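Continuing the series of single-chain predictions for the mutant panel. This is the parent chain; the variants come on the following pages.
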Amino acid sequence: MAERNRARKGYKMRKARIILIIVIVLLALIVSLQNTETVETKFLLLTVSMPRVLLLLLTFTLGFVGGMITASFILKTSDKSRVKGKPEQK
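Parent structure:
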């Protein structure tokens, strides 16, 4: 009986995950279709023309990578303090 309930729960979670992925893909498609016009972006002395969706994707990617680098640095620092025997400060 318990095994059957676990199987149902696993099926519901898979179904919910698939629905969530479909919704996210549809939202990304809508955003990309609505942001196809060309925009000028100035960075230091450089001016670049690109579709707005490409600028959004580039900005998202840079933010994601920056967050991952920062998180790994913070985790590495907290691991070093644990190894040295210092209690973590909160």
